């Protein structure tokens, strides 16, 4: 399956998306985000994930230019924030993101959270952007099964990606299975649990067994479950380390050990209890 950093999964519309990318949540605009993105691109990453909320789209765009990596080699994701949801406001928000990123198109545009009574209209705007060729793929983020089922009643195009909180303490097995059945690629945000519980005994044992860091064990576990992952880091050595996961494979029993760590524990918001006001 995934043998190197440039390995991709194919979304249901035929677009290829790298299995591993760099997330830039809470990475400061300016030098911090520019340096992180450039370090990732120099290491061989080809997927960068940002969002309007992160307020660093300009730095991401600047880093892409400075990196001299051809735009068509980069898979760029951004997201529409909750306060911009709705049909016309989403189209406007997309245009603002595109200008900040200074690109002609975005590879993947996501609805950041399922804002009640708004996400259907927001999705219709994403479908228009897709039909207009301004985005190569469209998807959702933080959608539960019932949100996607609701969307299915009103949409012409099924989401290509669902980006959710996913890690060993929140394995979301039912959602993963559902997305696989529907042909929706699951993607993990906060795959490293925001740095919590990396000293868990299971991870420590496997770290020793495979000669890999706990973070590398988790990221490998993501890939073997068929989940795209976008670990965030601003340190070049960590960015390199997170990418060094293609030279080993976890055994089925070790995969099960990590699955057994599940506590349905979130470090972010629950999509059904998110305060959108």
TrEMBL record:
Pfam families: Aldo_ket_red. Gene3D superfamilies: NADP-dependent oxidoreductase domain. The active site is at residue 54. The keyword Acetylation does not apply. Residues 23-262 form the NADP-dependent oxidoreductase domain. SUPFAM superfamilies: NAD(P)-linked oxidoreductase (SSF51430). The record marks 79 as: Lowers pKa of active site Tyr. InterPro entries: AKR (IPR020471), AKR5G (IPR044500), Aldo/ket_reductase_CS (IPR018170), NAD(P)_OxRdtase_dom_sf (IPR036812), NADP_OxRdtase_dom (IPR023210). Keywords: NADP, Oxidoreductase. This is Aldo/keto reductase.
């Amino acid at each position: 399956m995934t043998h190197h950093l440039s390995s991709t999964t194919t979304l249901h519309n035929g677009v290829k998306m790298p299995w591993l990318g760099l997330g830039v949540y809470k990475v400061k605009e300016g030098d911090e985000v520019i340096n992180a993105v450039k370090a990732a691109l120099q290491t061989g990453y080809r997927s960068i994930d940002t969002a309007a909320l992160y307020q660093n789209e300009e730095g991401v765009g600047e880093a892409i230019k400075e990196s001299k990596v051809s735009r068509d080699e980069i898979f760029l994701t951004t997201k529409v924030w909750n306060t911009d949801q709705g049909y016309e406001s989403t189209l406007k928000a997309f245009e603002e993101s595109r200008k900040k990123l200074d690109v002609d198109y975005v590879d993947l545009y996501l609805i950041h959270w399922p804002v009640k009574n708004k996400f259907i209209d927001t999705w219709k705007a994403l479908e228009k952007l897709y039909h207009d060729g301004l985005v190569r793929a469209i998807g959702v983020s933080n959608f539960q099964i019932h949100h996607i089922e609701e969307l299915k009643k009103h949409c012409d195009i099924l989401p290509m990606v669902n980006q959710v909180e996913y890690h060993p303490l929140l394995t979301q097995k039912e959602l993963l299975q559902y997305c696989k059945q529907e042909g929706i690629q699951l993607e993990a945000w906060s795959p490293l649990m925001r740095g919590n519980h990396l000293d868990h005994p299971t991870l420590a044992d496997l770290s020793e067994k495979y000669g890999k860091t706990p973070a590398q064990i988790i990221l490998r576990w993501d890939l073997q479950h068929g989940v795209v992952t976008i670990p965030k880091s601003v340190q070049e050595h960590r960015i390199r380390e997170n990418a060094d996961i293609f030279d080993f494979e976890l055994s089925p029993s070790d995969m099960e050990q990590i699955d057994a760590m599940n506590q349905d524990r979130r470090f972010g918001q629950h999509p059904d209890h998110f305060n959108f006001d």
